Amino acid sequence: MEHNARLRNTGFATFFFSGICAISSGVVVSLLQEQYGFAYGMTGTLLSLMSIGNLLAGLLIGVLPGVLGMKPSVLLLTAGYVAGYAIMGLTGAETLLAAAFFLVGIAKGSVINTCTILVSDHSADRTRGMNLMHSCYACGALLCPVLIAAAAKASTKLAVLLLAVLGGVLWLVYLTTPFGGKAQSGKAKEKIDWSFLRSARFWLLTGLLFCQNAAEQSVTGWMVTYFKGSGIIAGTLAAYTVTVMWGATLAARLLIAFVFPFQQPRKAMVVMALTCTVFYVAMMQAHSQLPAILLLFAFAFAMAGMNPTAVASAGKMTSVTSMGIMLPVASSGAILMPWVIGRVAESAGLAAGMMTNIIPCVGLLFFAVLVARMPEEA
After folding, report:
1. What are the residues whose beta carbons fall under 8 Å from the beta carbon of 375, sequence distance 6 or more?
2. How far apart are CA 7 and CA 28, in angstroms?
3. Which of the 8 DSSP states describes residue 262?
4. DSSP string computed for 11-36
5. Can you tell me the distance from the alpha carbon of 355 to that of 284, in angstroms, rounded to the nearest whole number?
6. If pLDDT is split at 50, 70 and 90, which confidence band does 315 have?
7. Is residue 114 domain-resident?
8. Given a cut of 80, is residue 185 above it in pLDDT?
9. Is residue 83 assigned to a domain?
10. What gap in Å lies between CA 338 and CA 357, rounded to an integer?
11. Domains: count for the chain
């Protein structure tokens, strides 16, 4: 029991630090764009490269433990936060920035997959455990603009290198955690059950998470740039919209975990999908500061429980292997949409680019309805 609690708490702690490091990328890319003056298309490419790294990490974390062992694999892949942000802090060369965002994505994906297994496998209540884990992420995300804004007053370089240091703290937590060894990983590999690939529920949840990743990552990565570029919110204040978004996310996830646990999670996902779609459409019609901030809060609040509830709904299908397929495939949505927004923004304007994010919001509702119509898991 004590060992289970330690592994679960490691998941909570490292997801907190990952929340700071991963969500800061949206603020950092805006700072780098201001400093080096690259185009919207480059911004979209950097965000998409981070998501490609995130996807690849999910595949690697499912394969490498059988070769290197779990702990060496996690340490190798999560070093990307340190390396990536160190590169961003030291150069503005576009090729190196591309590599840096890719490395940050590798670290982000590795932490997500590792924490999902650590918490889901060692929690008595899976839905509560996953929402609490994602609350830790939201806490980190909530702090990120405060830390970045304070450090950026001195210089952008200092702000980015601070993230490299925090990535190092995350890495040290894993270093001091007793994971299973190489032999244990090999033993687990022999027992892999691939039956989840024949499950309609698995693929519908993967489709739902694809749309959720696409919609949420687009808002996380582009909203600061959009609010600043459109003049809806002043440049210095725009960075704090990340705090608004993740404050709403944290509040919603804590409410789900401790106050209003979902009695019917699948129906709850339909309600969340519908409301976040409505709020996003309304937010795109906002042209002044207060309505924009309130609607961003409402969108984030509605979206907050979707990812942890969907992953928890996988039930018995949750394993290193199934998560190594579900989460990377779902993460491809976070690759596609930020890139699409960047391309549309270059040709038709940033407002038009942001409007395209309505598509995954509607897709989210579509998959949520299909999941809700499925029979209960035996």
Report:
1. none
2. 31
3. -
4. HHHHHHHHHHHHHHHHHHHHHHHHHH
5. 7
6. low
7. yes
8. no
9. yes
10. 9
11. 1
How many C-beta neighbours within 10 Å does residue 197 have? 12
Please calculate the CA angle 318-189-106 and round it to the nearest 5 degrees: 65
Q: Is the pLDDT of residue 276 over 90?
A: yes
Q: By the 8 A CB rule, do 273 and 364 touch?
A: yes
The radius of gyration of the chain from alpha carbons, rounded to an integer in Å, stands at 19
| The Cα angle at residue 137 between residues 328 and 255, in degrees rounded to 5 | 110
Cα–Cα distance measured from residue 256 to residue 376, given in angstroms and rounded to the nearest whole number: 21
DSSP string, 99-137: HHHHHHHHHHHHHHHHHHHHHHTT-SSHHHHHHHHHHHH
Return the closest-CA partner of residue 307 out of 17, 13, 19.
Answer: 19
Query: Is the alpha carbon torsion for 197, 198, 201, 203 positive or negative?
Result: positive
Q: What is the pTM of this model?
A: 0.72
- Residue 57's domain comprises 2-373
**Does residue 378 fall inside a structural domain?**
no
- Domain assignment present for residue 127? The answer is yes
CATH for 76: 1.20.1250.20
Compute the distance between CA of residue 74 and CA of residue 223 in angstroms, rounded to an integer.
31
Output DSSP code: residue 374: S
Select from 229, 210, 206, 228 the least CA-distant residue to 218: 210
Question: Dihedral through CA 113, CA 86, CA 221, CA 274, nearest 10?
Answer: 20
The label of the residue with tokens 């309130």 reads 294
Segment 152-179, tens digit of pLDDT: 888 888 889 999 999 999 999 999 988 7
297 token code pair: 């809060």
Q: Cα–Cα distance between 35 and 316 in angstroms, integer? A: 48
DSSP state of 231: T
pLDDT attached to residue 318? 62
